[in-house]
Amino acid sequence: MNFLKRMTMKKIFSILSVVSLFLLASCEKNVLSYQASDLDVTTKAQIRLVYDLPVVAATAQNITLLKYNDQTVSQISTALGNIFPNSTAKYHVLPIGANKVEAFKGAAKDQLVYSNTFNVPAGKWSAFVYNANEAPLMVQDPEEYETGHPWTDTVTYIRFVNLLYQADGVTPYGKVYLKGRRAATQPNINTYDYIDIAECDFKESSGYIPYTLKRNGIAIWSGTETGLAFVLFNENGEQLKVFTSAGALIDYAATGYSMTKGVNYIFHLNGKMGAAYSSQSVRLSTIAVN
To answer: FRET partner for 189 with CA separation of 20 to 30 A, picked from 41, 47, 95, 243?
Structure first.
């Protein structure tokens, strides 16, 4: 009996050993690998292209085909105020120097909306298509973003870019002041408190400005504040006004924003004013970049 038990145990051990070796061999034969190569920064640059033409937003205006240097890079429908493709904050790699860009709209992807050749320097760039006849506005992106201190602050970071036109879609609107808007700390005196963020003339961009988030009186926290509001003022200190669908002229406010501690955002003001609701298209678009 003992002999039979020993033989049985040896057989089980042998079977387990064979299975273990088989599994090990299988793992060795099926190692996953990914094709990747380092970016040669001496010959290649990185570009985020942003669709900010001064036209009234509509599905028919969506870009459905994007090409660089006659090569298709995106066929994802992308609306005004967004990054290609479809508001995903990713870079395209292009050779340093002159590059051709073409954007088409329509279901057949054959209606040319934008075509230009622009110079791409070394580095990382956000390129804003703001005029159908001009090269994109190039704004250099940092190699590393500020994220704040994990224990001593609750800040996010905002870069402001001003690409707003007058109602004709040709004349630049001029200098604009971006401010945060919060419920008044003294409601018997003011309706709102306004927090200065940045001021930019047409085709100007600010640096990344820290903006303090709040959360129910909690001093230090990690997460997202919701329900944020932002407003715009002109050089005369007047808040920008827009038309409602009923024809009333009201103060413009961008509301319902959510922002996260340690995240950097680009607020790019684009579009145009209007003489009526149907002809205006003021967009304070945002991009989370890290």
So the answer is: 243
- The Cα-based distances of 205 to 3, 107, 183, 208, 232 in angstroms read 86, 34, 27, 9, 15
Burial class (CB in 10 A: 0-12, 13-18, 19+), 19: exposed
3-state secondary structure of 112: strand
pLDDT tens digits, one per residue of 4-20: 444 444 444 444 444 44
pTM above 0.70, yes or no: yes
- CATH architecture observed for domain 44-140: Sandwich (2.60)
**Is 155-288 the same fold as 44-140?**
yes
**DSSP line for 199-224:** EE-TTEE---EEEE---TT-SS--SE
User: CB of 161 within 8 A of CB of 268?
Assistant: yes
Please, what's the largest Cα pairwise distance for the chain? 103
Residue 199 phi, psi dihedral angles, 5° rounding: -130, 135
26 conformational bin, left if phi > 0, alpha if psi -120 to 50, beta if neither:
alpha
Handedness of CA 124, 126, 132, 133 (dihedral sign): negative
- Domain limits, the chain: 44-140, 155-288
Fold assignment, 155-288: Immunoglobulin-like (2.60.40)
